[in-house]
Specification:
This protein has helices at 39-47, 54-64, 69-85, and strands spanning 8-11, 15-20, 23-28, 34-37, 52-53, 89-92. The protein is an alpha+beta fold and 94 residues long. It has one domain (8-85): Arc Repressor Mutant, subunit A (Orthogonal Bundle), CATH 1.10.10. It has a three-stranded antiparallel beta sheet. A three-stranded antiparallel beta sheet has the order 2-3-4. It is globular and about 35 Å long. It starts with 7 loop residues before the first strand and ends with a strand. The mean pLDDT is 90. It holds the Pfam family PqqD. This is Coenzyme PQQ synthesis protein D (PqqD).
C-alpha cells in the first residue's frame, strides 16, 4: 500500500522497544530483527503509538523541528515507507 498524507498509521504492536539516551531500539518478536532509530525517528515512533494521519504527524513534526513543509513531507514519507517495508507499521484502510 502506498502511503500519502491522508493515510492513517500506527506502529506495529508486535515489537518490543526501549528508549536509550534519546534513541529508540526495537526488536521484532515475530522475526527477531533488531532496529535502531535516531532521535527524529524515535520521535516519529513515539507519535505513531496511536493511530495518526500522516498529515497530522507532519504538522506535529514541523512544530517540534525547524524544517520546511516540503522537506518534512518528503523525509517523513521516505522514513515511513522504510518502516512499512519492514512491516513495522499498521496502515488503516481508507
Amino acid at each position: 500500500m502506498i502511503l500519502d498524507s491522508n493515510s492513517v498509521i500506527q506502529r506495529n504492536s508486535g515489537l518490543v522497544s526501549s528508549n536509550l539516551d534519546g534513541e529508540t531500539v526495537m526488536m521484532s518478536i515475530e522475526d527477531g530483527d533488531y532496529f535502531g532509530l535516531d532521535p527524529v525517528g524515535s520521535r516519529i515512533w513515539e507519535l505513531i503509538e496511536n493511530p495518526i494521519s500522516i498529515a497530522n504527524l507532519i504538522a506535529a513534526l514541523m512544530v517540534e523541528f525547524e524544517v520546511s513543509k516540503s522537506d518534512c513531507e518528503s523525509d517523513t514519507l521516505e522514513f515511513l515507507n522504510q518502516l512499512n517495508e519492514k512491516r513495522l507499521l499498521i496502515i488503516e484502510s481508507k
